[in-house]
Amino acid sequence: MFVELSGKIFAGIYSKNNENGVLNRRRQDLITNFAENIFKDEYFVYYSILKRFPKLGTVDEKFLALYLNTNKATFLKERSIDLGKYAGVADSYNEFCITCINTYKECMNHPVISDEEFILAIEQYRIEYINEQSIILMQDSAAIMTDGMPYGRRVLNGFHDMQAYMKRGLQTLENLDNGSSHIGIITYGDNEPEDMSNNLKTICEFGIEPLDKATGGMTEGDMISILGVAKGGKSRFMTYLVHRALMQGINCVVWSVENGVKGWEALLRARHFDYKYNSTNDITSHCFISDNEIRKGTLSGVRKDKEAASWLDLRTNKEYGKLTVIDEPFDINSYIETLDTAVKQGSAQLVAVDYLQLIGDSNNSRNRNEVIAEAYQKSLRYLKANKLVGLFPAQIKQTSVSSLSSLKTEELGSVETRDIAGASYEVVKTPDINIALIGSVEDIKVGHLALVSMPSRNSAPFAPTDLSVDFGACNYMVMNKDRG
């Protein structure tokens, strides 16, 4: 059934007998309805071409062969491609490539498929897929409860693992069943959905009074840009905010490209250590460590033991939110899919990506600025559709610091930001809330920064706020000091 429906769907797109203009319209229908891994084998390849080359019209055999050859290493590891069916053949991948080309020829030569037939095939495929995956989900869940089941680098076993696995699977199938996160066209007072009047929820405060007053805290759907110069404390401020959310039971996803998993993990561990042991006013009982000591493994004695206990507490305390980290290729073509997988796996309400200006394009089809702009636009749409909070550190030009520092509060709300970000204007244009961490090289050395308001859709201007920063412990505190 799946092979027959897949053939009809892709013939409906690729048939040379189709009317002009049908490819782009149906391409968008398909990508809107289904994710890439819904299709198998040669149809997975066809879908990936549709998605990765949106400007490409009809695909010829030479391009298909080149695409298969270029991506051989990726396709050999792809779970949606089963080369086991070619067992006994000297070169199973070459045989798969021949099948891809022959099936594509059949799609090309297929008679015209009407819009009604095409949509019907998509809906039938959706129903069959949900039914099949529901059965597999139940079988996997039973296996987790009895013998355990390998999953990535670990083995899932017992009730809690089964519950989490089932929840993720059902959410994925529910999203597929709904087809789209959009609610259509609304005429207020006529077909207004019941939940349209519900206010977006504030999931967590920033913990910095002027910023909370100006923004109301971190609210569902907010894209928050944390701007600053290189080595100016952006990643550490993001860590401070993520940790604050975790302590309030908020599930978070972090994709730290700049620092990597272990580098960012050291920042979070240092933040939690300071939170756990130095929250009292009794300075004599305080114990200090830095992320650098954790990363290099130079802790010893009591400090090492206390840090190990702190790290265990952060990972296992059921009162905290759950943390999911991503260590995957940071590529515009798979960015949202990877992020969405992590969000569903961790049931996350907050995502933090450090940082989007480093995103790549495996297709090499656009310049860097265009890729960054697309990444910001995709992120905003994703956050809005899923009611997530997003934290996005971003680098601004060093030359902007002195001009921003000299502005009065009332001037900050209308400052021209087009040239501040450098690589792409989307860095400050797209987010709902823009805040900047400003400080000279000398200020940063002694742990002094100013939190500066930037023009934003979802926040009121606020006066520059002086912060005292413990960079080693990612701790940001408002200084009791009046600005001149």
Gist?
The chain is of the alpha/beta class.
Textual characterization of the structure:
The protein is α/β, with parallel strands linked by helices and 484 residues long. It has 3 domains: 2-113, no CATH class; 116-178, no CATH class; 202-478, Rossmann fold, CATH 3.40.50.300. Helix content is 48%, strand content 12%. The chain has a 9-stranded mixed sheet with strand order 7-6-8-9-5-10-11-12-13, with helices on both faces. A two-stranded antiparallel sheet has the order 1-2. The chain has a two-stranded antiparallel ribbon with strand order 3-4. The longest helix has 32 residues, at 115-146. It is globular, with a radius of gyration of 26 Å. Residues 180-184 have low confidence and may be disordered.
Rg, alpha carbons: 26 Å
Helicity, as a percent range = 40-55%
Query: What is the assigned CATH homologous superfamily of the largest domain?
Result: P-loop containing nucleotide triphosphate hydrolases
- The geometry reads as globular
Based on the model shown, name its key terms.
single chain; 484 residues; alpha/beta; Rossmann fold; 9-stranded mixed sheet; two-stranded antiparallel sheet
Question: Secondary-structure blueprint of this entry?
Answer:
Layout: H1 2-14, H2 22-33, H3 41-52, H4 61-70, H5 72-77, H6 92-108, H7 115-146, E1 149-151, E2 154-156, H8 158-178, E3 202-204, H9 209-215, E4 218-219, E5 223-228, H10 234-247, E6 252-256, H11 260-277, H12 291-296, H13 301-316, E7 323-325, H14 335-346, E8 350-354, H15 368-386, E9 389-395, H16 400-405, H17 409-412, H18 426-429, E10 433-438, H19 441-445, E11 448-453, E12 465-470, E13 475-478
Parallel strand pairs: 5-9, 5-10, 6-7, 6-8, 8-9
Antiparallel strand pairs: 1-2, 3-4, 10-11, 11-12, 12-13
Helix pairs in contact: 1-6, 1-7, 3-6, 4-6, 7-8, 10-11, 11-13
